[in-house]
Amino acid sequence: MTLSALGYIGVRSTKTSDWTHFATDLLGMQQVDAGGPVRAFRMDDRKQRLIVTGEGSEGLDFMGWEVASAGELDRLAGRLENAGVRVKSEATALADERHVARLISFPDPEGNRIEVFCGPDIAADPFRPGRQISGFKTGALGMGHAVLHARNVDVLLPFYRDLLGFHVTDYGLKPYKLYFFHLNGRHHSFAMVGSGRQGLHHFMVELLSLDDVGQGYDLAQEEDGRVAYTLGRHSNDHMMSYYMNSPSGFFVEYGWGARVINPATWQPHETFDGPSYWGHERLYMPEDSPDRERLKAMRLDAARRGLRANDPASNCAWLESVIGRE
Ligand SMILES: [Fe+2]
User: Fold this and answer.
1) Measured in angstroms, how far is the CA atom of residue 188 from the centroid of ligand 1?
2) Dist. CA 77 → ligand 1 center (Å)
3) CA 236 to ligand 1 center in whole angstroms
4) Considering only CA atoms, which of 116, 130, 306 is closest in space to residue 219?
5) How far apart are CA 224 and CA 240, in angstroms?
6) What is the pTM of this model?
7) N or C: which end of the chain has fewer CB within 10 A?
8) CA angle 65, 109, 253 (to 5 degrees)
């Protein structure tokens, strides 16, 4: 695998005070000095994970994908150039701004800006969360996942899968195409939803404790129109989460308890259930909208059939190994 994880996300937004409140008081990130109109936030020992530009129209500015070394970065740049992609080797000034050793950038076929980097800077001081949370599940799994709208999945799919090397985890084809991709043990670091639109659908951050999510949910419900999907559990990655409206027109998923897959043995497959075992009521959709009704019918069907995640909660290594073999 070339790309190893989602390293950072950049948001184009002038709503910097809204983002500061959202990222610190609700998400629990730590604001750090970034200079000028830029706002940057930490989630762990990295110097920054979320960057808000302070200018431009609202939406996704860039996704930052990580590779292990400068050699990997050069190999990827070569592969992209051979395929006709215009790759820019970014100057040191931008690498310094991103707190990485080196980075390249290029657009995907629908114009989303992709950055690939190596050598992230590690902060000298410990992460101090913006509210009292246990912390974020990052490390080798990366900062979380990003889900893009796709005008045309058939154009984006070969680019991300065949050129960039994202591995399909699972996919749904009806009523629209939905592809999930992994780079590491996280069930998906990236996904695309064939909504016919362009831009970011949501990004997800995972917490270390269910109580982080529950308390965040209470806080989010105190704010009018903040919760976009109610608490629920996804059927593919088993994430227990809710979604919030971010200040910039896309959602942020706040979750806990996703499964970790084994990329060496994982087989991509089509899914027919879900997207949720329960919950995830789409509050942002009109109550009688056909999509909201359809999703509700699907999860009630999952409830009737008793579909559920196998929770790794036995704390018994022997039982885990038996379940694993089966
Ligand atoms: Fe998600």
Assistant:
1) 8
2) 28
3) 10
4) 130
5) 22
6) 0.94
7) C
8) 50
Distance 141 CA to ligand 1 centre (A): 14
C-alpha 323 to ligand 1 mean position (Å)? 26
At 17, give phi and psi (nearest 5°): -75, -35
Span from the CA of 217 to the centroid of ligand 1 (angstroms): 16
Largest CA distance in the chain: 57
Residue 242, amino acid: Y
Ligand 1 geometric centre to CA of 35 (Å): 31
The first and second tokens of residue 61, run together, are: 């500015």
What are the structural domains, with CATH classification, of the chain? Answer: 3-121+132-305 (3.10.180.10)
| Rounded-to-integer distance, Cα 179 and Cα 261, Å | 16
Question: Ligand 1 center to residue 92 CA distance, Å?
Answer: 33
Please list the rounded mean pLDDT of every run of 10 residues in the chain (326 residues).
93 98 98 94 98 96 98 97 97 98 98 98 98 98 98 98 98 95 98 97 98 98 98 97 98 97 96 93 96 94 91 61 68
CA dist 258 and 129 (Å) reads 21
Q: How many Cβ atoms from other residues are within 10 Å of residue 25's Cβ?
A: 15
Q: Residue 30, SS3?
A: strand
In single-letter form, the type of residue at position 171 comes to Y
Distance from the CA of 241 to the center of ligand 1, in angstroms?
9
